[in-house]
What does this fold into?
Amino acid sequence: MNSRPGAALAASLPPATRWRTFLAVLGPGLVVMLADTDVGSVLTAAQSGAQWGYRLLALQLALVPILFVVQELTVRLGIFTGKGHGELIRECFGAGWAWVSVAGLAVATVGALLTEFSGVAGVAELFGIGRGVSLSLAAGFLLLIVWTGSYRRVERVAIALGLFELVFIGVALRAPVHGQALWHGLFDVPLHDHGYWYLVAANIGAVIMPWMVFYQQSAVADKGLQPQQYAAARWDTALGALLTQVVMAAVLIVAASTLWAGHRSPPLNTVGQVAQALTPFLGPLLGHTLFGLGLLGAAMVAAIVVALAAAWGFGEVTGYKHSLEHHPLEAPWFYIVFSVGVTGGALIVALVPDLVALSVGVEVMNALLLPLVLGFLVALALKALPREHRPRGVYLGVVLAVVIATSALGVYGGVSGLFGG
It folds into this structure.
């Protein structure tokens, strides 16, 4: 896999040292994957289970290695070049293509932040808290953490928030799962249904997003990870990829178990409806509390990651200072872009309805952007990496197959669902 120098050095270390190295490196991959299971992803998984039962569960499992292959390239680029994604595109392909890439990032960022704050408002309303109060508190908390913290502090807070998503796994373990229906759903694929393909695209877009590529590569560079830490960084990414898809599968299983009865359920249109649908067997109070904690954790960690990805991306393209290690007075534009994203997202959500359809639509948009995002990623891996660390041979074939198949499936599903009738 072209990582022999770093891998050989890591393998020669005593086990205790390797564990310390892994714990020191742990963060960028885990954080970005916890953010990957954001509000839009949770609601997409819930809608998938409600509309199609267990028929999209196999896709969740298949996306684990695909997600790893994609994000591993960002780790490789961040470690062996020490530069962020936008900066490398600018250096390798020119400012014009860099702006094209960051324009795609901007579109994805706006959509993501709207879904995150929509989730915050929806959870608060479950407990009778008004939008103005909940959104103000959420935005204020995010600004406080980033404006007053270093990279490592922000990373620790993000992990702590994201781990609330594990409650979805606990809920799934108590759900009334129909074993025979689950087994049948793994192999029953309604290939001729445009509604099914629309949710296929939404699930792919919910797992591979433009801001994830920008965030993880920039986070690896900002954290200062070195080649000898590459093996540990790959394990960090693998752990995160598995965890995020287990959470997605858990949400889908709960929705399928409680709503699917051999035919499509009515669409879920609000966070409140999703909460009611996912937790009837737990009772209103416990169900709403667990669902609220999980969705709030997903929303907050994703909002941090998405807004930081935008701030890093624009900084890398324009050349302004872009690091959490800089004081706000040293890197004012970096912190301004982050703050505009957070406050703007909160303000817009305060004025628009809380629709699950918006979240699903955002994930489909992410799927339609995949050819651009993954195309740049592979091109950088083949051009910007030192020759000995570039994908080659069988692994290069795997990477190309994953990128082409995932992009084609995402675009086909999105176009088919939108225009297929």
